[in-house]
Amino acid sequence: MKQIFNQSVDSVSKMWLKSSQGIGGGIREGFNDFRSELRDATTTKKYTRSGIGQWDQTLLWAVALLTLIGVVMVYSASITLANGAGREAAQTGHSYLVRHVFSLAVAVFIGLMAFQIPTKVWDRLAPLIFLFTIFLLILVLIPGVGKSVKGSSRWIPLGLMNFQPSELMKFACILYVSHYTVRRQEYLHTFIKGFLPIGFIVGFVGALLLFEPDMGAFMVIAGIAMGILFLGGISAKLFSYLIMIGITTFGLAVATSEFRRKRIMAFLDPWDPEQAQGKAYQLTHSLMAFGRGEWFGVGLGGSVEKLHYLPEAHTDFILAVIGEELGFIGVFIVISCFYWIVRRSFMIGRTCLQLDRSFAGLIAKGIGIWIGWQTFINMGVNLGLLPTKGLTLPLVSYGGSALLVNALAIATLIKIDAENRVLMRGGKL
After folding, report:
1. Among the four residues 67, 80, 235, 427, which has the most C-beta atoms within 10 Å?
2. Is 25 inside any structural domain?
3. What is the per-residue pLDDT across 77-128, written as a single tens digit (0 to 9) for each?
4. Residues 29 and 75 in one domain
């Protein structure tokens, strides 16, 4: 009898603990059940088994907000360029806005087309896309084919716009390294079959980029490759080799270039009178722009630094104009949007791995690494935390090629998320 009594007490205790907080939790659960039943009885809406949407709308809204901020700030930062000297004087105040909106429209169209492509197609085409992009990087170095601006040969003229192959290489690198990591998963812990082939390929791409020269793109692509290999399961020993090779390559690139050495010296002491009028000119005026903005900015269109003081205000240093006109609040909104995009990218990638979709998961995380790493470099340059590099702010800065490739990446990310949601509903791809 005593044993039966003890068993009864134990069962009652377990029932008590299952509720959140005793009787209160039981009442709350009962109320929630009643509310759910009442809702189902009074609505004609049909719910799916999971209640999962078609795609991540918050991700899409963050991207849309950044692009709208980009349109407004590109117009604000470039409207005074027509009053300057040189090739900008032949433009009207609306020229950059028109071209930016045109590029954005083409980017939206490309994004819609890319959304229709299943992830498995990217898996099949990854090596071909990578080889084609390498061909474009070689083509841009041929005199008469590649367009040179300020000593850098990075563009292929296409009539209405100039295409920059290094931007496409960022996306192609994500596809190929993800493909390589999945296909050679069993060899990632070995040097000959795992590390050496991908190291040679990335090094070859880096050499082509340094010949342009485009040090910023090389840093982004190297960061993407290292990040995907790390997430793919490369051994810690080989990963340390990658880090040492990256540091050595960067050191050699700086040591063998007087131009880069001067930029490093300017970064270390930007307020030196000689540096402030030389290589640190952009950095000092960028810092002055942030200082003028304070908390709420001087108002849209009220920037002084964009009046031919801050070079490339509509491209590389557009964040400085945002900081001056919209203040800390505007910069915080931009950073928050980028944070959400990167966060969602990694969450989508984690869901892919849970669904046994390794290739799609690495692509999603690779896109997050790309956007996060490039944004960090651009913001670091604008704030004086990193040496000056020619990298745009994704989705915000003026530039046709960057917008097109960014739209391609975002559409692929949303497609991966949509495929995940189909699988979580019990569907098939």
Report:
1. 67
2. yes
3. 888 775 555 555 445 567 888 889 999 999 999 999 999 999 999 999 999 9
4. no
The closest alpha carbon to 293, from 322, 259, 251, belongs to 322
Other CB atoms closer than 10 Å to residue 186's CB: what's the count? 9
How many structural domains comprise the chain?
Answer: 2
Name the pTM for this structure.
0.83
Co-location of 38 and 71 in the same domain: no
pLDDT digits (tens, 9 = 90+) for 153-206: 788 888 777 888 999 999 999 999 999 999 988 888 888 888 888 888 888 898
Q: Are residues 115 and 240 in the same domain?
A: yes
Co-location of 248 and 365 in the same domain: yes
37 lies in the same domain as 67: no
Supply the Cα-derived Rg of the chain in whole angstroms: 26
User: Looking at the structure, do residues 14 and 71 belong to the same domain, yes or no?
Assistant: no
Q: What is the DSSP letter of 148?
A: E
Residue 113 contacts residue 171 (beta carbons within 8 Å) = no
Residues 6+ apart with CB under 8 A from 377: 216, 219, 220, 386, 389, 391
For position 237, what pLDDT does the model report? 82
